[in-house]
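quick one before i forget lol
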Amino acid sequence: MQNQLNKLTVAVALASAVLASSQVAASGFQVREQSAKALGNAMAGAAAGAEDVSYMTFNPAAIGNVDGTQVAGGISYIDANFELTDAAAGPAGLPLSYDRGGSREGGEEAWVPSFAFKTQLDDQFDFGLSVSAPYGLSTEYDKGWIGRYHAIETDLQTIDIQPTLNYRATDRLNLAVGLRAQYADATLSNAIDLGGMSGSPALVGNADGKAEVTGDDWGYGYTLGALFQATERTRLGISYRSEVDLTLEGDVNYSARNAAGQQILAGAQAMGQLRDAGGTADLTTPANMNLGVYHQLTDRIALMANAEWTEWSSFDELVVESGGQDLSTTTENWDDTWAFSVGANYQLNREWILRAGLGVDESPVPDSEHRTPRVPDADRQWATLGATWMPTRNLGVSAGYMRVFGDDGDINQSGAKAENATRGDLSGTYEVDANVFALSVDYRF
């Protein structure tokens, strides 16, 4: 028991190091890049793969498929690219005058770390701990870009700390439950047309200010999972991850870019408007469910498939409040979605496993009127390759590559909507793609 406690102490220390250095960012809201092995199979093994302890972030019962004690750590690099083409913007009733020549690209590069640990307590129970980043978002545009009144920077970082207990109900069935302690930190900013507030047409679009909202919070949820070895060659998995409700509390700050804007801002603040103050924003990270099958077709070839449902309908609007009043509202009305993937492994020899996969993922954005520059999401497809090198039976080193092909997504934000009264019109077509690279190491004691 003392040896297990020592291993747990080391695991917690490593988890704390990951937590301290994590910066979560990705194109889109959901981050699936928690395992290089799973990524190499296009996430087709998420629910039933259970090849090492890192799969517990997808299905907590995965740790029951690993005997003894194991630790795994990984890092993913995400290079997301998106650009608004054929863009037009402007306040209702005035010429399209918002474009100041800024880039219309908002993609970001990001590093996503992950960590997982498990130990077998006795013949029936396993304990695991994972630190992951299941949701994240990072978009940033030039300060003068054409859609600046809708968004400049959007940064959402989440960290999930998940202690897990697995019960080996039978030789074939594992049942697991986990607690999720989720920390979220967010920054939202956009330009303000202070010139439009002045009453002078000449200053419209030429005396910008900036509003920035920052906030963070802790929330709590749970995860459930089951892993069933149906036959000697076929494994089935199902997992559920609850939603987490967060109230991000922080500050609202205003600034101006030039002398004209500073003068208008000072006048507004003298009248009690646009003053720096505390602010809040409610956010729900959605529930999701994974269903999967893993089949060892031959001694060398394994096939797998996965279906993932995400309850994005819980993200209906984004409201920022300050001083008891709604400062900003963005209607989202997202739809629940499904993602499907298939994958295969080929055991080249004792040391090498080759991986491949294909996937499709629905966008939760229902139409062009609800697509925003903060989350310019669209339906996407994945193609992946990967490999695992096992120089010893206890050590595995895995690498994976994913190419994401996003469909073009139209945006049609109308200035006639009440929530866009100060933002104006914005239309165009988003082109989206991404490259993801992942590397992980797992070691079994």
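fyi Residues 165 and 290 are 19 Å apart (CA to CA).
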